[in-house]
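Example 9 (inverse folding). The structure is encoded as follows.
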């Protein structure tokens, strides 16, 4: 199993072949920024 805990703005859970990605930036109402976009790209989900 892959460890996704190092992402700062993403919570990633994979269960039974289904991935759940949660944007975790409540202080800015989950608005995107360059770092979040890069985390999504690095995680391989976009």
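The amino acid assigned to each position is listed next.
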């Amino acid at each position: 199993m892959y460890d996704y805990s190092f992402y700062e703005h993403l919570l990633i859970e994979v269960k039974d072949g289904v991935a759940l990605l949660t944007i975790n930036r409540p202080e800015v109402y989950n608005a995107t920024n360059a770092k979040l976009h890069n985390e999504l790209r690095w995680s391989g989900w976009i």
